[in-house]
Amino acid sequence: MIYPIVVYGSSVLRQVAKDIPADHPNLNALISDMFDTMYKSDGMGLAAPQIGKSLRLFVVDATSLADEDPSLADFKKAFINAKLTLLDEETMVMNEGCLSLPKIREDVERKNKVRITYYDENWNFHDEEYEGLKARVIQHEYDHLEGVLFIDRINVLRRKLLKGKLNDITKCQVDVPYKIKVIK
Ligand code: NI
After folding, report:
1. Active-site residue identified among 90, 96, 129, 141
2. pTM exceeds 0.90
3. Domain enclosing residue 43, as ranges
4. Ligand 1 centroid – CA 47 distance (Å)
5. Is residue 114 part of a domain?
6. Looking at residue 88, what is its pLDDT?
7. How many domains does the chain have?
8. Which residue from 51, 45, 56, 40 is spatially nearest to 137, judged by alpha carbons?
9. Is 141 a residue of the active site?
10. Measured in angstroms, how far is the CA atom of residue 141 from the centroid of ligand 1?
11. If residue 163 lies in a helix (H) or strand (E), which one and from where to where?
């Protein structure tokens, strides 16, 4: 099942998402739907709040970039109840977009290295470190679980310049090749 993408202006994107209990019904179906929804909208990551569910779950798939960066060949994962720690002081600036902020791209500064603990779709526990693009995708998706969007991480002046575009998104007045909606 393909979900519409919940966009900027929706309260669910600003909530702190809740942990998922191990007996959550149909979790595998939900994860599979999130992958399908992400592929349909051509995203590299998707967090549950972006389909209107305030749950601590996100999926990533950057394997399509493996030709340029072979380390991405296995970077297709579901992260359940993740806990993130930012490592070292080194930061990196990279241009980011978000399915919930269609047609907006901005440079965002983030840590280069992270440690993350999480459960996978089989409830196996993982404690891993990531750097570079993987660390970036993880930080972006993890932010969604905390009610944070990448535009919160750019400077105030840049954000002011986006006001008109953001306002249009809250009314779904933006031309995107996937279904979007606002949940008030
Ligand atoms: Ni996003």
Report:
1. 141
2. yes
3. 5-179
4. 7
5. yes
6. 77
7. 1
8. 45
9. yes
10. 6
11. helix 163-170
